[in-house]
Amino acid sequence: MDEYENFIDYQAIRARVERRLARRIAFFTHLLIFTFVSMTFIYNPFWKGTPLVEVGSVVWFILLMIHGGYWLFGETRDRAIRKEIERERKAAQMMAAYGKAKRNSFDHLRDDGALIDFDAAEWDTEAKYKRG
Question: In the chain, how many domains are there?
Answer without folding.
Answer: 2
